[in-house]
Design goal:
Layout: E1 5-10, E2 13-18, E3 32-33, E4 37-42, E5 48-53, E6 56-61, E7 66-71, E8 78-81, E9 87-91, E10 107-111, E11 117-121, E12 132-133, E13 139-144, E14 147-152, E15 161-163, E16 170-173, E17 181-186, E18 194-200, E19 211-215, E20 220-225, E21 231-237, E22 251-257, E23 262-264, E24 273-278, E25 284-289, E26 294-300, E27 305-312, E28 316-319, E29 325-329, E30 337-342, E31 347-353, E32 359-362, E33 368-373, E34 383-388, E35 393-398, E36 405-410, H1 476-494, H2 517-541, H3 548-555, H4 557-568
Antiparallel strand pairs: 1-2, 1-36, 2-3, 4-5, 5-6, 6-7, 8-9, 9-10, 10-11, 12-13, 13-14, 14-15, 16-17, 17-18, 18-19, 20-21, 21-22, 22-23, 24-25, 25-26, 26-27, 28-29, 29-30, 30-31, 32-33, 33-34, 34-35
Helix pairs in contact: 2-3, 2-4
């Protein structure tokens, strides 16, 4: 088993350690002791590790952990690598001074192998700072105001073409090689819709769009290409839901194919869309949506629901890099419950609890994942844990007192470096968490502790995992009936009605029915009351203390006998 390195950035600096099975420190890497490490990352193929230490940007080669570049006097805040790890890009805040009123270029592109500065640009805003590349690095694109400008063949000096007629606020290049596609978001003016447009490079005239998707509620659009680059999802969102229906604003999910096909993904439940992710196998995607309890649904390329993972206390979805394991997590305002599913056979593998999780990431081997509690989201109980896909905790490392953990990442590896993990539900050997686990039992007052528990469901619309349309999916009416039956059964148990009953007690008084419905009804009613009185008299004889109203019933026996005699005349 390969031990995959893990980099941790904290208020004390940067350290590297190994994942399972070793869990030791990476001895070849000299830990960085600094309180001003602002950023770190591995290159896409894992060949380089870059980090900022104060005003120094360093690039390390991961084959031997030796420094290959040191860039002095930088105030960089953000870092990003090109897809083939050829270039490292950095962004720092744009500043002007009396001596330099024009300002200094703040977006720099360095050659990763030696740190040589290739090109610098001015990009004043922090938003959309990161240039985009095609997967083969032939295309280079960046935002200039509301235009997207393109360079080719690593020539950063010459702009080949641009998208300049649509007032773009966000865009995404497809991960194809050889043929390139670009998705763009153009905001609408008041009273007019926003547009998501698909173009084939370099045909960017409005009439050349392969697909147009309009939407009225879209302050922001997030683009999700599948790894093949032949289909994409557009998640539209508004900051505020003007209908008042949701605290999270309003979301919509749209599908776009390279053939120009567009469709809207229609969730089966109202509410926010919390998380969307494509399967790395490219044939399906998973969405978590809906008011509590949220639903998790897997859709095919026709936007048809093919499997419902049930009603879950979850808001995050993560496929492992190989796409054969699906993880559902409930973080933030939820209590950290995690479910793991066999994504191919639609079977649950395991589950675990990782409370106070602010970060989750799969390892490149697809077998392990880490959860972490990081600052500034949470400033206490910082640290990270490593888990096996069956839900077993393998390792945990709490941060020392007074130390805040800012970020933690696995080393990347080239695609296909690891085979699909063979899935089993057999638990591996693990450890117990050091943090005390919250009790899953509901509080019961002292008066109810010796009585059978009443089972109930908090939500009437909870569902188990099932295929859409299958019999295993109970309707809301069936769930309500089940709830009523369980409550009735629990009530009987609580009242002791399930105890073996002795012979029925009845009085010695006999009645003769007359055939007159009204008269017979009165006779039966009196007989019933006399039988109840006889039962109370037997209980009194056995020493049981009766209530005042029960004693009054016994005293009324003579009146009932007189009434019975009068009716029989």
């Amino acid at each position: 088993m390969t031990s995959i390195p893990i980099a941790a950035r904290s208020s004390s600096g940067i350290s590297l350690s190994f994942g399972p099975p070793n869990f030791g420190n990476v001895e070849e890497f000299d830990s960085v002791q600094s309180k001003s490490c602002r950023s770190m990352l591995f290159s896409p193929d894992g060949s380089y590790f870059a980090y900022i230490n104060g005003q120094i940007l360093k690039i390390v080669q991961t084959s031997n952990w030796k420094e290959v570049a040191r860039i002095e006097n930088t105030k960089a805040y953000h870092l990003a690598f090109s897809p083939k790890s050829t270039y490292l890009m950095s962004w720092e805040p744009f500043t002007v001074s009396n001596a330099n009123p024009q300002g200094t270029p703040n977006l720099n592109i360095y050659r990763a192998e030696n740190g040589q500065l290739e090109k610098s640009f001015v990009h004043k805003k922090q938003s959309n700072w990161e240039p985009q590349w095609s997967a083969d690095e032939k295309l280079f694109a960046r935002m200039v105001n509301t235009d997207v400008v393109f360079c080719e063949d690593l020539n950063f000096e010459r702009i080949v073409t641009r998208i300049n007629c649509h007032k773009i606020i966000s865009y995404k290049i497809s991960p194809n090689v050889g043929t390139y596609f670009v998705l763009c978001h153009t905001p609408g003016v008041p009273g007019q819709p926003s547009f998501g447009r698909l173009f084939k490079y370099p045909n960017f005239d409005e009439q050349q769009a392969l697909a147009n998707k309009s939407f009225f509620q879209a302050d922001k659009v997030d683009f999700y290409w599948n790894s093949k680059g032949n289909n994409a999802l557009l998640l539209t969102s508004t900051e505020v839901d003007k209908t008042g229906g949701s605290y999270y604003g309003k979301q919509g999910l749209h599908f776009v194919g390279l053939n120009g096909q567009t469709s809207m993904v229609t969730p089966s439940k109202e509410g926010p869309i919390y998380s969307v992710q494509w399967s790395p196998k490219n044939q399906e995607f998973c969405v978590i949506y809906g008011f509590t309890p949220a639903k998790a649904t897997i859709y095919n390329l026709k936007c048809e629901a093919v499997f419902e993972l049930g009603s879950v206390a979850k808001n995050s979805v993560y496929y492992n890099p190989q796409g054969n394991i699906l993880l559902l997590g409930g973080f933030g305002n939820l209590r950290g419950q995690i479910e793991l599913w066999d994504a191919v056979n639609r079977k649950k593998i395991g589950s675990c609890d990782a409370p106070e999780t602010t970060l989750l990431e799969w390892a490149a081997d697809g077998e392990h994942f880490l959860t972490a509690t990081t600052s500034p989201r949470l400033r206490t109980s910082n640290g990270y844990k490593i888990w096996h896909y069956t839900g077993v905790l393998l390792y945990e490392k709490p941060s020392p007192q007074q130390e805040e953990l800012y970020d933690i990442i696995w080393k990347n590896y080239p695609k296909l470096a690891f085979k699909d993990p063979i899935i089993t539900t057999k638990k591996v050997e693990g450890i117990a968490p050091s943090q005390p686990q919250a009790s899953t039992q509901a509080y019961r007052p002292p008066s109810a502790r010796n009585r059978p528990a009443v089972k109930f469901s908090l939500h009437d619309d909870e569902e188990a995992a099932h295929k859409p349309g299958a019999d295993s999916a109970p309707s809301k009416a069936a769930l309500k009936q089940k709830k009523k039956r369980e409550a009735k059964k629990a009530k009987k148990l609580e009242g002791g009605e399930d105890e073996p009953k002795g012979p029925a007690v009845s009085s010695t008084v006999q009645i003769n029915l007359t055939g007159d419905p009204e008269l017979d009804k009165k006779l039966k009613n009196i007989k019933k009351k006399l039988d109840a009185i006889e039962k109370l008299k037997q209980q009194q004889a056995q020493g049981k203390t009766l209530e005042i109203n029960q004693i009054e019933k016994i005293k009324g026996e003579e009146e009932l006998l007189k009434e019975l005699k009068n009716l029989a005349v």
